[in-house]
Amino acid sequence: MTSGRSRVAAVPLWEPGDFSASRWPQWESWKDASPTGRGVTRDRVVRLAVTGVALAGLAPRMVESASGDRDPVVVAVLLAAGVGYGAGCVLAAWSGPFRPHRERALLVAALVVLAVLPALVLGSPSHLTDSTFAIAAAFMLLPLRYSAAIGAALVSWQVGWMWVTGRFDPVAVATLVGVGTILCTVFALLFTIGHLRAAREQVRRMAVSGERERVARDLHDVLGHSLSTMTVKAGLARRLLESAGDVPAAVDEIRAVEDLSRQALSDIRATVSDYRTVTLATEIAGARVALTASGIRADLPVAVDDIDAGLRVVFGYVVREAVTNVIRHSGATNCTVRLDHDRVTITDDGGGDGAAEPGRGNGLSGLAERLAAVSGTVEHGRLPGGGFRVTAHVPSPPTAGLRRGAADSEPVP
């Protein structure tokens, strides 16, 4: 037997919490935080407000730089450096997270240069304390291994410079370390909130997609079987009227089509409302009617007592889909259904493909999903001597949650 095994493909899950010291901060997640974009703007304003409050501490430095008897050129350089430093910090907070990696690196490099320039011009290591904002921007925009290196280098430079000149200022060092740590913590919290919001949005989209797939699968299962039987019976009524003019027999077939259409409509309504329950016994009885109407000899079980109660629902779907494919695609004259406590097998002797072109349709892929929910598998393929076989197997009993609606003994109607 040539068989193909159908399983539900594993879907890789996006994990926003993944972390690596060499990974660039993925602030792009903020772009998906809100379909309207309001969340993105709000979070930008928050980052900008935090940066603006922190930058207020630069004002005294700039006033000090402009005062005294310094050379006007030096004053101009210091003021330009201060203005450029503040503007760069604002730019980093507003649009830095959404810029390409190269632009991020250049922006951080410019901020570091502007931060250390006053200390070099004035020969004052205490002015390196103002580099806290450059360190915070580095932590926001660069991988951790680079931003941590920049922070450690600036702190070490300030401590070493003070030590060499004999003007060690523990307050300045503590300010550099403390303020830098606080700003980095704020950005880290904002980063985490953004990822949590993006993850929540992704969960919502996955839930909607999963419900859509469930409804589509159930509608396929309901309509495929009912419409196939209705088509066969309508064709039989037409042939009766065309060949023999047997009006009573044709009326009986049309009445059966009417009953099936009502049942299909009821099933669709119940499916949409999530109240529809498939039972193995009912599906076997329906399969007997459909196969007989199609002129196919049906060899079906008379009871389902040996089947675990938790498997009767999923095995009912297997019988429904397999028998529907036998009627529609196989051209068979015989169809056999065999039940065991952990498997169901449907075999036909047709020359067509009972699987309805595996890989293209939704039927067998839907069965694979249902079987996967109870740790089972579905196999299908041609038989060496002709015909087709579908086998669903569950190696272990399903969970108790799948046992709803099944009776301890369920005879076939």
Automatic annotation (TrEMBL):
One of its GO terms (cellular component) is membrane. Gene3D superfamilies: 1.20.5.1930, Histidine kinase-like ATPase, C-terminal domain. SUPFAM superfamilies: ATPase domain of HSP90 chaperone/DNA topoisomerase II/histidine kinase. It comes from Pseudonocardia endophytica. Keywords: Kinase, Membrane, Transferase, Transmembrane, Transmembrane helix, Two-component regulatory system. Residues 317-397 form the Histidine kinase/HSP90-like ATPase domain. InterPro entries: HATPase_C_sf, HATPase_dom, Sensor_HK_TwoCompSys, Sig_transdc_His_kin_sub3_dim/P. GO terms for molecular function: phosphorelay sensor kinase activity; protein dimerization activity. CDD domains: HATPase_UhpB-NarQ-NarX-like. Residues 384-413 are annotated as: Disordered. The chain crosses the membrane at residues 75-94, 106-124, 144-164, 171-196. This is Two-component system sensor histidine kinase DesK. The keyword Kinase applies. Residues 211-279 form the Signal transduction histidine kinase subgroup 3 dimerisation and phosphoacceptor domain.
